């Protein structure tokens, strides 16, 4: 799966439009989420910066608003972005990239050591 980018050559537009192979077995929202994850991993979408609004994502990827929303939801489920009410959606983490180029979502590392320190009340 690969997205091809081209610039909208309209007079006042700086919009980059990504196109996907719609014959691929994955749902479009999965393809959009995977492409966004690769952009995050590459640093194109930097940590702690806002993700483009869902309406803008829908325009950039040539998909419906619902597809853009589902892609954003998938990124949230993977822990790559966080959404703050009235603020927007922000890049929260970078995925590891496997040799195949697909975003590999690792489980978060959890410290399983139990503290033996006693606390006074």
From TrEMBL:
GO terms for molecular function: DNA binding; DNA-binding transcription factor activity. Gene3D superfamilies: Winged helix-like DNA-binding domain superfamily/Winged helix DNA-binding domain. The keyword Transcription applies. Residues 109-121 have a biased composition (Basic and acidic residues). One of its GO terms (biological process) is negative regulation of DNA-templated transcription. Keywords: DNA-binding, Transcription, Transcription regulation. Residues 26-94 form the HTH gntR-type domain. InterPro entries: Bact_HTH_transcr_reg (IPR050679), Tscrpt_reg_HTH_GntR (IPR000524), WH-like_DNA-bd_sf (IPR036388), WH_DNA-bd_sf (IPR036390). Residues 101-121 are annotated as: Disordered. It comes from the Bacteria. Signal peptide: none annotated. This is HTH gntR-type domain-containing protein. It comes from Amycolatopsis taiwanensis.
